Amino acid sequence: MAVKNEGSVTALTEVGDGMLLVSAEARNPDLLWEPGQAVALVVDPDGSSLKDRWRHYTVRGYDRKKATIDFLLTRHDPDTPGGRWIESLAVGTTFTFMGPGGNPVLRTGADHYVLVGDRTSLASVSAMLDGLSADAQTGGPSPTVEVIVATPDPEAAVLPTVNAWPTTWVRASSADDIRQRTLVALPQTVAPGARAYVTGEMTTMRAVRDALIERGVAKRSIGTHAHWTPGRRGL
Ligand SMILES: Cc1cc2nc3c(=O)[nH]c(=O)nc-3n(C[C@H](O)[C@H](O)[C@H](O)COP(=O)(O)OP(=O)(O)OC[C@H]3O[C@@H](n4cnc5c(N)ncnc54)[C@H](O)[C@@H]3O)c2cc1C
């Protein structure tokens, strides 16, 4: 994530269950991005430490022609550096970011996928699903996908993808509930050769990864990234 860039907010859209879709114009529009990758972003330029200044957010989508980059932000607490930044956003707000970069990134070509996460994973999950749709349109396989997302209010939750994908919404807010209920929702059998992407709360991510390995998914076919966990700031 070496290249410093600047974004200018062009639109803010509520997308359900505390999620905010932020579209921004990138000053340097020449980004290299693959579905799943995130940016590091300055949420408080006056913060006294790196942990106060920077947070990571996944790129929901990137349109090279329009030079726009989208994010899906979780309102989990209005009194954290990230929360204050989200509440401060308005059309025209500018911000500094580095990237995108990092893992996991979508690897197309499998016949079966399992995507698991919580609200912080919605940008990654929806970008990957759009990536699978685009791949199928250009001759790739049309895979089956199990999508499992934990969220406080499933009735209000939205998966903002180009095509509709069946989704198992798990009702959970605390880290313990997210982990326990996500594990219950996991499929008992997973098709051979499946690829999995697991992001979100750290203890859930680890437990889900272990459960998938037990069910026969190859370790190298599971992409993971911890997004948050109780008591840790700015993962
Ligand atoms: C690679 C990467 C990609 C990410 N992508 C996204 C994304 O696309 N959208 C998104 O919304 N978030 C995303 N996150 C998660 C986001 O960076 C964290 O939630 C971050 O902690 C938010 O910063 P904060 O200042 O609000 O809270 P912090 O100051 O970092 O944390 C304060 C307290 O709040 C708790 N906390 C943090 N996040 C949550 C949460 N989501 N739910 C409940 N409690 C929480 C912490 O454990 C801590 O106890 C990503 C994280 C990483 C590492």
**Total helical elements:** 5
- The SSE order reads EEEHEEHEEHEEHEHE
Report the sheet-strand fraction: 35-45%
Q: Tally of extended strands?
A: 11
Level-1 CATH class name of the largest domain? Alpha Beta
**Reading side by side through the largest sheet, how are the strands ordered?**
1-2-5-4-3-6
Rg (C-alpha, Å): 17 Å
Q: What do the pLDDT scores average to?
A: 96
How far do the termini sit from each other?
A: 15 Å
Structural class: alpha/beta
Q: What's the number of domains?
A: 2
Backbone shape? globular
Based on the coordinates given, report the CATH architecture of the largest domain. 3-Layer(aba) Sandwich
Molecular structure report:
The chain is of the alpha/beta class and 235 residues long. The protein folds into two domains: 4-101, Translation factors (Elongation Factor Tu (Ef-tu), domain 3, Beta Barrel); 112-228, 3-Layer(aba) Sandwich (Rossmann fold). 22% of the residues lie in helices and 36% in strands. It has five helices and eleven strands, in the order βββαββαββαββαβαβ. The protein has helices at residues 50-53, 81-88, 122-137, 175-185, 202-214, and strands at 4-16, 19-26, 38-42, 54-63, 68-74, 94-101, 112-118, 144-151, 167-171, 195-201, 222-228. The strands form two sheets. It has a six-stranded antiparallel β-barrel with strand order 1-2-5-4-3-6. Helix 4 packs parallel to helix 5. The longest helix is centred in the middle third of the chain and has 16 residues, at 122-137. It is globular. Bound molecules: flavin-adenine dinucleotide. Flavin-adenine dinucleotide is lined by residues 38, 55-58, 72-74, 76-77, 80-83, 102, 120, 123, 225, 227-235. The site of flavin-adenine dinucleotide has 27 residues, from strand 4, strand 5, helix 2 and strand 11.
